[in-house]
Amino acid sequence: MVEMAHIVKRFGQPPAAAAVDGVSLAIRERETYVLVGESGSGKSTLARILVGLERPSEGEVRWFPPQPGSAFAAHGHGKGGVPSSPVQMVFQNPDRSLNPYWRVQNIIAEPLVLQGMARREAYALAGGLLEQVRLPRGLLLRRPSECSGGQKQRIAVARALALRPRLLVADEMTSALDPATEADMMQLLMDLQWDSGMSILFITHRLDAVHGFADRMGVMRQGRIVEEGEAASLLRQPSTAYAKALLAACQYT
Ligand SMILES: Nc1ncnc2c1ncn2[C@@H]1O[C@H](COP(=O)(O)OP(=O)(O)O)[C@@H](O)[C@H]1O
Ligand SMILES: [Mg+2]
To answer: Which ligand is nearest to the CA of 91?
Structure first.
């Protein structure tokens, strides 16, 4: 569905080390791809390039079918007059990504309103989007400060789903959650994927919860993908010492 070819990203001039140093990665339809690696290995930079928030120094991102302009920007009107966007992203910190002064209803409806949908129509869809992420409609009139951390991340997912993306990029979206809430969130993502057929790129520096969730995995280190494969076999038998060490740092080995 989308292919990143030989991506390099340098901040500053060479010989500064590249944040992303020649990564090629493809994500298929309906696939959950989990990208792991220690902090600073280039995961977020790669994700930002994928969604079009950042330009690569070298290489290119190809969508199939091709997307005009940035894939992140919504364009055109999809089925039933609802605007759509091929890719949406959810970030680690909902307190930075959700406007604290807005009600949940406004937050979820905003991507639709920005695309020209009437506010009343967008609000009418917001309740259904909340239900999709298993939250009660009663939250529509609350503000983020009146919600738990797990609820805030579900609200961020509901907002991302408003534009019915083909790919959801989740960058450390569960890293600030406790393990039980993280497990619930990953189950929700699996259910949403089952219902919608979207693909998921899930980025994390923790391997604890990816068992049974990931289809394929890539291990990133110092700007490169040092190991990639089917998740079940990679988790069972990592071939690099680095991946082994990452696994050993988690609960199971
Ligand atoms: N906007 C930026 N300007 C300069 N350096 C950056 C910028 N964004 C990321 N970097 C650097 O790129 C490297 C990779 O960062 P990042 O992609 O955030 O890694 P990760 O998400 O794996 O923790 C780090 O060394 C980081 O300091
Ligand atoms: Mg990051």
So the answer is: 2
In the prediction, which pLDDT does 247 show? 82
Of the ligands numbered here, which is closest to the C-alpha atom of 172? 2
Q: Across the chain, what does the average pLDDT equal?
A: 91
Q: Does residue 95 sit within a domain?
A: yes
210 Cβ contact partners less than 8 Å away, ≥ 6 residues apart: 34, 36, 202, 204, 217, 231, 235
Alpha carbons 14 and 189: distance in angstroms, whole number: 39
In a domain, 19, yes or no: yes
Query: What would the two tokens of residue 169 be?
Result: 């990029």
* Cα 42 to middle of ligand 1, angstroms: 6
Question: For residue 117, is it within any domain?
Answer: yes
The pLDDT value recorded for residue 252 is 47
CB of residue 94 inside a 6 A radius of ligand 1:
no
Provide the CATH number for the domain around residue 227. Answer: 3.40.50.300
Low-confidence ranges of the chain (pLDDT < 70): 68-81, 250-253
Q: Show the tokens assigned to 148.
A: 């738990």
pLDDT of residue 75: 54
For residue 253, tell me if it sits in a domain: no
Q: Answer yes or no: is the C-beta of 44 below 6 A from any ligand 1 atom.
A: yes
Residue of the nearest CA to atom 2 in ligand 1?
11
Counting the structural domains of the chain, the total is: 1
**240 and 227 in contact (C-beta within 8 Å)?**
yes
Rounded to 5°, angle at Cα 95 from 114 and 48: 65
Look-up: residue for tokens 């690696």? 37
Q: What is the pLDDT of residues 149-199, one digit of tens each?
A: 999 999 999 999 999 999 999 999 998 899 899 999 999 999 999 999 999
